[in-house]
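ESCALATION

Customer reports they have been waiting on this structure for their group meeting. Please prioritize. Original submission:
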Amino acid sequence: MIDWPNVTASGRQELGLKPEELQKSKCVLGFIPVIYYSILLCVGVPVNILTAVALSRLASRTKKALYYYLLAVTGSDILSQLFIIFVGFLLETAVFHRDVPALLLHSVSAAEFAANHASIWSTVPLTVDRYVALCHPLLHRQISYPARARKIIAVVLMLSLASGVPFFWWSDMWRNSHPPTALDTVLIWTHVTIIYFLPCSIFLVLNSLIIQTLRVRQRQQRCQEECGPKSAPPRRLGKTTAMLLAITSVFSVLWAPRTIVVIYHLYVSSVHRDWRVHLAYDLSNMLAMLNTAVNFFLYCFVSKPFRGAVRDVVLLRGGPLYPRRALPQQQAPTNASISSLYSGNKHRSQRDSTPLSPRRARKPS
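Update from on-call: job pushed to the front of the queue and completed.
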């Protein structure tokens, strides 16, 4: 850790600095955040675009609501990368040093929070859909279809956009020297509730119910195997459920440090005055933004159909909307010709091709 020396009274007069400038904490990381966010943007945006194309193919091919929810999560991640990383961190902070008109600064802040809320809350309908599918399968068949999924996604995006409006008055933690006001307290608690406490509570409850349901089913199947005749093998944790648990767990881990630092800034020590809090805030933001680029690798690790769709996109292959089925008219001549290569007997060739194109047996006269 680096211990920055305090400025003496004589040094203050020589430098001619204001009291609020003397108390301002220094950025320990230097240019590391700029390099990190540049790499994250150059990797994350193409990866998320590839993910969106692959998921759109799977959605059109399978007509499952699951892929529409994942597509909404990916689109929200792209918006977060563009508004928060590119516009917020790189342009406003690194290039212009936030020396831009106040109206533009606050407008971008509201857009950043709206994109952030959309990225997080797009995962909630996915979690609810998986819970209904596993715990209430008959109900899931009735209520889960693409048209309803698109309506739910539209509602989530509109609510996320509306929830970003109050953060037009969000204060700059790095540069505001005054203690947090009553408005800052309300906005900070609203922020951590929307982005962490409320969604994590939903994830925890629904994932716990999903895991408990799967455990009960496994116990019932074991009892049936021991007491009665052999039945189907015990149902394991599905890949879709495993992917959901991975997405929500990674989000909970990566966003926890930022939530803690923001509350610490509110009640203990300010980011503007304490370089340690400043360092923790920078690192926690870097971890939180990493969440916008890791879902692609989780999908590839868990889902075989997703890997196949990505392979088709990378190789510029237009995958068929439905599985190809060979027609009997196309199979018969091929098999007949192959059979004729192995046998010169004309009757044998006809006999090999007969099962592929059966004819009605004539009734004896």
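Sent to customer with the following note: The first helix runs from residue 9 to 15.
Escalation resolved.
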